[in-house]
Design goal:
alpha/beta, six-stranded mixed sheet, about 35% helix
């Protein structure tokens, strides 16, 4: 979606939309409309019981210059940034396949801030993302037509705010594409190739490790997950040094299981096709890194992705196998479908030994138990530091990528003690998400602030949201970008 900020008034024949705050219809102004047309628009709004609720849309067709003009009113609720975001997404949802290729949105009659307008634009662009490349018989009426959105009458500060929103939108596009692609297209090596192409020229320093390098480093836990697959595992690290040379202050670590059969502990057939998005944590990390570099964030951040495929080959790890992690700690594998934590633990060790970050945030579609607990409304947050947890929760509320905090304690930690190794990779049925987090915590060095985000219910949606249609949501990119902006940029 092409977004244009303009000071020029809308063309008299163009499709035009006017934002309207809740219960403010009688105070709204519609620049460029004559009195008769204004009355028609107001009558249609009242007849449709439009009250300006965020995301509500009323559409009117009026005579104009011998033809017909399309006019829309878009509810922006109480006028918060979140309300403007909902409105922007609703506009694109209404017009995306309408046959119109462009629309002008007139903000001159609103009291919107530049940040709110930029948020509107971001959501409008994000809601237009589609992944139709494999659909050869898409009906004509289902094909997207809207390609241009012009914002006019925008307040001061919009252009600067849009720079950040545009970068985040481009990062989300990358994340969604990776999550949506089928596993015969995106597997560890092609994940890396796709990301490298997308970040070319942004100034990101790249490290890629193959299986030989990881074997030499002793990354037996990550490689254990991969050993049943014909696809070679990869470790991808993206380093952004926005405030100069030196070790990164923050490491983002993502689980990148490009397809998860469960391994020898094979998942049930129904729903297994969803496991193409089991790399959603890694997808969020690379999308966030692209966003940070795209807006030239003044922070030093490294993103690390452990990329594997979990398959039930004759060479796959078995329940009761013992793996030795890069940290030297040993793991009794009781369930090969609890593989994400085996990938993450070696990535956490690697980034601590090579880059010494003071703070680590990992993201993973880790446990079905998280979906049972929170559904598809929040990601789960676990942290060894209260201030870090609060920073992440705050960023989630500000962006709409919401989180809910869960506990950690020695009582839960004891549930993963093994009688023959340092730990086992699963605990009992209860508190499954918590024991998974306790497992990862065992690999975090003393003095390092750490948070684990279990986003199992958030990277894919069976219903449309404010800035996404059904499918890949791009969850985590906005959250991480805001977290960095608020806490790591001076």
């Amino acid at each position: 979606m092409h977004i244009v900020l303009s000071t020029a008034p809308a063309d008299s024949g163009s499709v035009i939309a006017f934002p309207v705050e809740k219960d403010a219809l009688n105070r709204a102004t519609f620049g460029g409309l004559d009195a008769t047309t204004t009355q028609v628009v107001l009558g249609a709004a009242k007849g449709g019981r439009f009250d300006g609720e965020a995301g509500a849309v009323v559409e009117v067709f009026v005579s104009a210059g011998g033809g017909v003009r399309r006019i829309l009113l878009i509810g922006v609720g109480a006028g918060s940034e979140a309300d403007y975001e909902r409105a922007g997404g609703a506009l694109t949802a209404k017009l995306l396949t309408s046959g119109e290729d462009s629309v002008t949105v007139d903000f001159s009659g609103t009291g919107a801030s530049g940040k709110a307008v930029a948020r509107f634009a971001g959501a409008a662009a994000q809601r237009g993302w589609r992944h139709d490349i494999y659909r050869t018989k898409l009906p004509e009426k289902s094909k997207p037509t809207l390609t241009n959105i012009t914002l006019t009458g925008v307040p001061e500060g919009t252009e600067a705010a849009w720079v950040g929103q545009k970068a985040v939108t481009e990062g989300m596009d990358l994340t969604r594409t990776l999550v949506a692609e089928p596993p015969n297209v995106i597997y560890p090596e092609t994940f890396v190739a796709k990301v490298l192409k997308e970040i070319e020229g942004l100034g990101i320093e790249v490290t890629v490790l193959g299986e030989a390098e990881m074997h030499a480093l002793g990354m037996g836990s990550l490689l254990g997950v991969s050993q049943g697959s014909a696809k070679e595992a990869q470790l991808l690290a993206l380093k952004w040094s926005g405030k100069g040379e030196g070790d990164p202050d923050l490491a983002l670590v993502g689980k990148g299981v490009t397809f998860d059969t469960g391994g020898i502990s094979l998942k049930p057939g129904p729903g297994m096709e969803d496991m193409k998005w089991d790399m959603g944590g890694a997808g969020a990390v690379v999308g966030a890194m692209k966003a940070l570099a795209g807006r030239k964030a003044k922070a030093n951040v490294i993103g690390v992705c452990g990329l594997v495929e979990n398959m039930p080959d004759g060479n796959a790890i078995r329940p009761s196998d013992v793996l030795t992690s890069m940290s030297g700690q040993t793991i009794e594998v009781l369930n090969t479908d609890a593989e994400g934590r085996l990938v993450l633990c070696d990535c956490v060790t690697w980034v601590q030994r090579t880059h010494k970050p003071k703070t680590i945030v990992d993201l993973a579609t880790l446990t079905g138990a998280m979906i049972v607990a929170l559904g598809n409304e929040h990601g789960g947050c676990f942290a060894n530091d209260d201030a870090l947890a609060e920073q992440l929760l705050k960023a989630g509320l500000a962006t709409g990528d919401k989180l809910w905090r869960f506990p950690l304690s020695p009582a839960y930690d004891k549930l993963i003690d093994s009688p023959i190794a340092d730990m086992k990779n699963v605990g009992p049925r209860g508190a499954g998400s918590i024991t998974a987090a306790q497992f990862i915590q065992r690999f975090v060095d003393a003095g390092v602030k750490w948070a684990h985000l279990d986003i199992a219910g958030m990277v894919w949606s069976d219903k449309a949201g404010p800035n996404y249609d059904k499918g890949a949501t791009g969850y985590g990119v906005r959250l991480l970008d805001r977290f960095v902006a608020d806490n790591f940029e001076g």
